[in-house]
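Hi support team,

I submitted a single chain yesterday and got back a structure, but I'm not sure I'm reading the token output correctly. Could someone confirm the output below corresponds to the sequence I sent? I've pasted both exactly as they appear in my results page.

Thanks,
R.
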Amino acid sequence: DLDNDGDFDTQDSLLYVNQYGPLYSWYAANNYYDPTPNPALEGLRLRPGVRDACPQGWHIPSQSEWQELRLYLEQQHGYDTTASVLLSRTGWQGGGGSDLYGFRMLPGAYWQEPGSSHGNILGKVAFLWLSTDGNSANGAYVQMDDFDKRIYGSSIGKGIHGLCVRCLKDR
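Hi R., thanks for writing in. Yes, this is the structure output for that exact sequence:
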């Protein structure tokens, strides 16, 4: 309830998008049809010739590209502070990070289908989809928070979760 009127409604959705950006399923972020309702759609692009949700000349990073960034940050700043140098200075319930590189990571949390068991983590955690395909049901993501200041990676349901994306400029 971002507008503090006691309910989650269209106004909250608009406020969320304006502050954190849109949320995507893994399929939408990576420009694939969700094959759950129709298995014949598996592997087909929503928009032929388009790679993902990023503009031309940019792409959603892969797991190996994030790993490269994480290792660099560990070498420069130590294992225990890899996320803090990417976190925005404001917007985090725990105080945020130094935003040393101008990355301005915001704590947009994520969406999952109604009735889930997770509490409200908006303002506490950031999740970003990666282009890496975890398996038929799960896509890879990275997670950052301002509690332990580290970057984590895992996989989560492709079609039942909505996460933010960050685009990486093509080399």
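A quick pointer for reading it: The chain has a mean pLDDT of 84. Let us know if anything else looks off.

Best,
Support desk
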